Amino acid sequence: MNEIAQREVDKVARRTLSSLRDALIHPNNDVARDAAFKRFDLAFETAWEAGRIYLQQNHNVEATYPMAVFRAAGQAGI
After folding, report:
1. Alpha-helix runs per DSSP H in the chain
2. Tens digit of pLDDT for each residue in 27-57?
């Protein structure tokens, strides 16, 4: 993945985390709560995919599932 694509992945990850924060601030009803669950799911998926790409490009680590990505990121000090 080139540098431009990596920046785009980072931008999407930051936007999904921001969206999740907004949903958690206002959990007034069931719809808002359900939206927060969905936003968490999206943020989690985006974070581990971005982490996988980062580890692959910068640390030569091949992690293929979320737990392995988070474990490798911790070991790399990220």
Report:
1. 3-25, 30-59, 66-75
2. 677 777 777 788 888 888 888 888 888 888 8
Amino acid at 44: F
Give dist(CA 53, CA 20) in Å, integer: 22
Phi, psi at 27, each rounded to 5°: -85, 60
**Residues 32-70, buried b or exposed e (16+ Cβ, 10 A)?**
eeebbeebbebbeebbbebbbbbbeeeeebebeeeebbb
SS3 8: helix
